[in-house]
């Protein structure tokens, strides 16, 4: 059974979200503080984290960063509509999705299920020194594995599948997030592209694979595959 960890300092909120997740087939773990959440992540198998931003002691953004440093588990943030800067900060620290309060519990459950839905299957893509295996949800650059969160992997896969064709930020929102109705959508895409480039830069030249086309969006050049060996 797929396991979700719900982290919120309000017991009523964890109960509501937990029940909604159970209706989608999740087994639910609950933590009311960051320290407990980190302990559960170390000791239990977790497939998804639903994380409130505003918490005492270890706030949600800090916790998101600590989780991402040790795991690529999908992370969904819960944040107040008025705190849009928290969304950008959370995405920059590795969150994969967010829901703003007030929200319908079923929305959280459905979007959570989408985050952990069966990974894409398909043909391995090779672009220059980049090798992407959709079925294994893995990406290699120059023979080294890239550690990519769920959303960044989907972004990389989409750009590779449409290499040579510029993708607008609206195109990317629709393909990667499944909607164009995201508050601050352009900034969400820009932040995710920035994080992806940072990871690519650690293993090579990031601009070789994700380029900005002024007025058009982003594109991955149609580079010939690198010779084997």
UniProtKB/TrEMBL annotation:
<dbReference type="GO" id="GO:0032993">
    <property type="term" value="C:protein-DNA complex"/>
</dbReference>
<dbReference type="GO" id="GO:0005829">
    <property type="term" value="C:cytosol"/>
</dbReference>
<dbReference type="GO" id="GO:0000156">
    <property type="term" value="F:phosphorelay response regulator activity"/>
</dbReference>
<keyword id="KW-0805">Transcription regulation</keyword>
<dbReference type="GO" id="GO:0006355">
    <property type="term" value="P:regulation of DNA-templated transcription"/>
</dbReference>
<dbReference type="Pfam" id="PF00072">
    <property type="entry name" value="Response_reg"/>
</dbReference>
<feature type="modified residue" description="4-aspartylphosphate">
    <location>
        <position position="52"/>
    </location>
</feature>
<keyword id="KW-0804">Transcription</keyword>
<feature type="domain" description="OmpR/PhoB-type">
    <location>
        <begin position="122"/>
        <end position="222"/>
    </location>
</feature>
<dbReference type="InterPro" id="IPR011006">
    <property type="entry name" value="CheY-like_superfamily"/>
</dbReference>
<keyword id="KW-0902">Two-component regulatory system</keyword>
<feature type="DNA-binding region" description="OmpR/PhoB-type">
    <location>
        <begin position="122"/>
        <end position="222"/>
    </location>
</feature>
<dbReference type="InterPro" id="IPR001867">
    <property type="entry name" value="OmpR/PhoB-type_DNA-bd"/>
</dbReference>
<protein>
    <submittedName>
        <fullName>DNA-binding response OmpR family regulator</fullName>
    </submittedName>
</protein>
<dbReference type="InterPro" id="IPR036388">
    <property type="entry name" value="WH-like_DNA-bd_sf"/>
</dbReference>
<dbReference type="InterPro" id="IPR016032">
    <property type="entry name" value="Sig_transdc_resp-reg_C-effctor"/>
</dbReference>
<keyword id="KW-0597">Phosphoprotein</keyword>
<dbReference type="InterPro" id="IPR001789">
    <property type="entry name" value="Sig_transdc_resp-reg_receiver"/>
</dbReference>
<feature type="domain" description="Response regulatory">
    <location>
        <begin position="3"/>
        <end position="116"/>
    </location>
</feature>
<dbReference type="InterPro" id="IPR039420">
    <property type="entry name" value="WalR-like"/>
</dbReference>
<dbReference type="GO" id="GO:0000976">
    <property type="term" value="F:transcription cis-regulatory region binding"/>
</dbReference>
<keyword id="KW-0238">DNA-binding</keyword>
<dbReference type="Pfam" id="PF00486">
    <property type="entry name" value="Trans_reg_C"/>
</dbReference>
């Amino acid at each position: 059974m797929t396991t979700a960890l719900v982290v919120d300092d309000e017991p009523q909120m964890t109960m509501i979200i937990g029940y909604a997740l159970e209706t989608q087939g999740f087994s639910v773990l609950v933590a009311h503080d960051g320290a407990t959440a980190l302990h559960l992540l170390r000791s239990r198998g977790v497939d998804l984290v639903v994380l409130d931003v505003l918490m005492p002691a270890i706030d949600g953004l800090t916790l998101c960063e600590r989780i991402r440093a040790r795991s690529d588990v999908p992370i969904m943030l819960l944040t107040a509509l008025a705190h849009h800067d928290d969304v950008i900060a959370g995405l920059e620290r590795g969150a994969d999705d967010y829901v703003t309060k007030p929200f319908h519990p079923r929305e959280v459950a459905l979007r959570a299920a989408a985050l952990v839905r069966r990974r894409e299957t398909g043909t391995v893509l090779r672009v220059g020194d980049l090798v992407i295996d959709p079925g294994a949800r893995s990406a290699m650059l120059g023979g080294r594995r890239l550690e990519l969160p769920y959303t960044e992997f989907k972004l990389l896969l989409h750009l590779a599948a449409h290499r040579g064709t510029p993708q607008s930020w609206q195109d990317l929102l629709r393909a990667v997030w499944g909607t164009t109705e995201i508050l601050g959508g352009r900034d969400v895409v820009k932040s995710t592209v920035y994080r992806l480039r940072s990871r690519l830069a650690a293993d090579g030249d990031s601009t070789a694979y994700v380029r900005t086309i002024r007025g058009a969006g982003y594109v991955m050049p149609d580079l010939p595959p690198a010779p084997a060996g």
